[in-house]
Design brief:
Blueprint lengths: L1 H40 L16 H8 L11 H7 L3 E6 L6 E5 L7 H4 L12 E2 L12 E5 L18 H6 L2 E5 L4 E13 L3 H4 L5 H12 L7 E2 L11 E8 L2 E12 L3
Parallel strand pairs: 2-3, 4-8
Antiparallel strand pairs: 1-2, 1-5, 5-6, 6-7, 6-9, 8-9
Length: about 260
Amino acid sequence: MWKILLIIFSIVLIICLIIIGIQKYQQKKQQEYYETLLENAGSQPQATEEVPEPETEEAPDILKSLGIEIPEKDIDFAALQEENSDVYAWIYVPGTNVDYPVLQHPEDDTYYLEHNMDGSKGLPGCIYSESVNTKDFTDPNTVLYGHNMKNGSMFASLHNFEDQQVFEENPYFYIYTEDKTYVYEIFAAYKYNAIHLIYNFDLTNPEIFQNYLDQIFEIRDMSANIRQDVTVNADNRIVTLSTCVSGEKNMRYLVQGVLLNE
């Protein structure tokens, strides 16, 4: 009897090890794919570019007054969209490993939770938004999602902002599109309930949006980092970067930035 159980246990163990091995291999291949993609379609910032000619006079004045120079990235959106037509932006977050294309599936909001940019199913997935958000970042709150991967890829390194020094030294993130580069000032990084932010808060209502923002600035959690000197109100547009919290399935880690160059 014990021999039979031992054989069964051994078979199950071998199967589990094979599955784990396959998953690790797939994740490694996807990481290599993203590294190649980064090399071919976008590059790590090596220099800075002058603030582009403004769409309005106010926007560049804000960037210049803050001494912000947009990190230069030569992103070939045509090449990216040839790989996958759902690509519509690129996000770069200094102080983290986040340097990825942003996608949105036209029909299935959770598609890129389980699918990679090349269409293969599995992890690490992609950085993506849902169809409830437009692709031009004009919504009151645009939410981007990414997995908290153990190897540090996708949105895992957003957790770097739990370190106050990292938070203080890296106040901005950048979203590149074919037409414009959006500059966001990070005003909050904290753990929050795993609720759907767009469906639970009607942020198109200015009063609700303002109350929502006020609640963020009132957070007193010791693990949260909040920039109390940053002004954010219902007239602004924000982007929320959302990822999981290890060991806390009902929580999400959020990094939020307010658009500076509207």
